[in-house]
Amino acid sequence: MSGVPPPTPPPPPSPPQRYRRLGKYELHQLLGEGAMGIVWKSYDTVLRRYVALKLLSASFRKTRDMQERFLREARAAGAIQHANIVTVYDLGEAEGQLSMGCTSRTSAG
């Protein structure tokens, strides 16, 4: 050959991104925070769809009154069906963290 170096091989593929897990959810992106809760764009690994996942704020997790309020809010929101309001389809607890899974027509990836 004429002293030309061989082409550089392509870099290896990037490893898959790791997300924080909470039960069946992967927490992908923080969407917002309020006084009572934090909302994440999350991926439901069982139903295989993106959802808005509301978590009770750390400062309220230890108080029984706030836990009960969070549960009442989830149940009340779950009873409402309207095109302009998210649908609550899951209420649960994982790793000591209360969560409310919501979806709407705009929660797609």
Description:
Helices cover 14% and strands 39% of the residues. With 109 residues, the protein is mostly beta strands. It has one domain (20-103): Phosphorylase Kinase, domain 1 (2-Layer Sandwich). Strands 1-2-3-4-6-5 form a 6-stranded antiparallel beta sheet, with helices on one face. A hairpin with a 3-residue loop joins strand 2 and strand 3.
Gyration radius over CA: 20 Å
Number of strands: 6
Shape: elongated
Q: What is the string of helix and strand elements?
A: EEEEHEE
Task: Give the SSE layout.
Blueprint: E1 20-22, E2 25-33, E3 37-44, E4 49-56, H1 64-78, E5 87-94, E6 97-103
Antiparallel strand pairs: 1-2, 2-3, 3-4, 4-6, 5-6
Highlighted features:
mainly beta; six-stranded antiparallel beta sheet; Phosphorylase Kinase, domain 1; 109 residues
Q: Can you describe this structure in just a few lines?
A:
The protein is mainly beta and 109 residues long.
